[in-house]
Sequence to fold (800 residues):
Amino acid sequence: MMGTANTPVLLSHRAAQSRSSVIRELLKLTEQPHILSLAGGLPNPAGFPIHEIRKATQRLLDPSGEIAAKALQYGPTEGVEQLRHLVAERFNCPATGVIITTGSQQALDLIGRTLIDPGDVVVVESPSYVGAMQAFNGWDPQLVGIPGDRHGLRTDLLEERLRRGLEPKFVYVVANFSNPSGATLSDARRVHLADLADRFGFVIVEDDPYGELRWEGTEPAPLRARSERVISLGTASKILAPGLRVGWAAMPQWLVDPFVRAKQGADLHTSTLNQYLAHELLSDVAGQRARLGASVARYQQQAMALHSALVSELGSAIDVAPAAGGMFLWARMTADFIDTEILLQRAIEHGVAFVPGSAFFVPEQASMSREYLRLSFATLDPDSLAEAARRLKAAVESFA
Amino acid sequence: MMGTANTPVLLSHRAAQSRSSVIRELLKLTEQPHILSLAGGLPNPAGFPIHEIRKATQRLLDPSGEIAAKALQYGPTEGVEQLRHLVAERFNCPATGVIITTGSQQALDLIGRTLIDPGDVVVVESPSYVGAMQAFNGWDPQLVGIPGDRHGLRTDLLEERLRRGLEPKFVYVVANFSNPSGATLSDARRVHLADLADRFGFVIVEDDPYGELRWEGTEPAPLRARSERVISLGTASKILAPGLRVGWAAMPQWLVDPFVRAKQGADLHTSTLNQYLAHELLSDVAGQRARLGASVARYQQQAMALHSALVSELGSAIDVAPAAGGMFLWARMTADFIDTEILLQRAIEHGVAFVPGSAFFVPEQASMSREYLRLSFATLDPDSLAEAARRLKAAVESFA
Fold:
């Protein structure tokens, strides 16, 4: 136990083994002003309701009103009642099953804490959201990646594994405009996945940060409408502002108490002020619809600009589908000598950045993913996106 | 693995074994309007800088300014730079060692996550802060309680245990106006504790939510000034407002990276907006001093009112020292037939509530603590505190 003040001998095994998120480390490297970054996962600040949050704060913190002291005081671990009810209406579920979290990230962590014993199987789509895998990995699961395609998780492959004896605690999906693949889980596969959950006795974690950022087509019915074994996650981060750190989880009743106790130990409760702010803005239904509409139109314009620029600059060297929503394009470099991790180094030299596909796969499958890249169109304007595509072309050509 | 949708068979062992905080469950029971509650741990909302937070939000969210978009966007896991630097100045430590947390509660949880392997020894003072024990227990330590008295942790008893082979990962203390005991660790014991940490190779977690709420005497030098093995925790909750959920931790460099990675998985980062708000208010040094002075004067008046009412109503039936700061009186019922858990039931019938001492001890020592009670004077006015003392007297007399 003895050691000098400089030795990390006191670290837990968990801490000593932890690795940083590849994306977040990358983001630091690509923050130089001359780089056009398609690597981030940030929403466009042009969509932040700055004016409305400012006005809402004025109303909430009116010293003569009753809410000011409440909004600044400790609050219930479950969350502010008004916001829980509003989320329950959006989710069409009982408010008693809704818990407000410090962003969806906390919900992912608390799901790990309450469901995962070391060695438990957790299924993620391959590729999957890095932050979710990081949160789950904190609880020592065996992460199993099941491939996805443009219609989301291959539930046929999942069923095959289940029949061969795979026993997951839960299956994690971003069912709408997934990060990174942009895929939306098809209606038929949702029916299939819900059926598998009920037959094989696992939980579905349905994470949905991007569902409302849709400009084409209609959303299939959510998984929570198809099974009682679903934990649904939502967040204010992409429809209001991530700086609030307000998310929510709707869960089966048997999970509520353990989840709340876990949250109590984790941070007592989510910022009361920010919960009231989220409630103020989201309960203004017409205003929220108008603001969101403007955001979605902007994302659509950006998505189309990046997609057409990639196609016209890179032609058959890249395989990339247009997006119907969300914040990302998921592309494949068709030349098999291009490894996107190496391409990234060249790209940075040419003043453009993206996230190589390997970041999004469980380690065993990372090598199969070297031809993929994730491109965010959310924060650059159309001209910059076109220039980014030109720079990417130059980086690709440097391989020839 | 099979089970119906209603079975909690999927819970992790950790979740299945968790218990709720006694205090938080009690708080729910004592929220009825006819009860004068001395049970809470809430700061007095009269001290909340409502007007200043409102004004600061106006400045920060000026749409023509540069900060608005930053304050609503994702931010670095470590925290907003300006706030880290401000905390570093307050702590007289390098800003690279300061991490902003979602309240001190999150810091306690992340300390558990980064330092505790199952079975590791963690020393807490007996009695100790319930929320800390709850956070640590999430990581399966062996919690060892070492008695404290009116000068804080009995470091002589700790040394005895260390010499007999106790090997703690860390020792947790609330060194100023401890919750629940109100005790301040004496200067001599701080020197001793720091020396023990260096000799025996453990870390000291110095949690300090109440240190600035002092109206008498001067604060001994902090433990971080005496050893490099100290993690110091602070919070905006008692000096600004708890609803912001902004806390901070200053730690040795070897802990920074693992701590940040753990926080990344836990909630990505603390609310950017609230960090900017805390920075705005705390960097107004003169304003903060004035506001805090008014709060401290109010707490002093309340503490004196409750103490004198207890002494005059209960006389020799109660042993309670006056407070020099903080939010709590810690009292002992001298009649050995009074168990404070049973007294609480009677007290609630008489319209007053407190927290029985047993809540604050590790389970093995809980039975030794049945004569103690924690009384918060923070939220009631002097007249109500006097009435609360009268009701407590009536409850005590019902035993005769």
Q: What stands out?
A: The radius of gyration of chain A is 22 Å. The first strand of chain A starts at residue 36 and ends at 37. Residues 1-5 of chain A have pLDDT under 50 and may be disordered. Chain A touches chain B through 97 residues (CB under 8 Å).
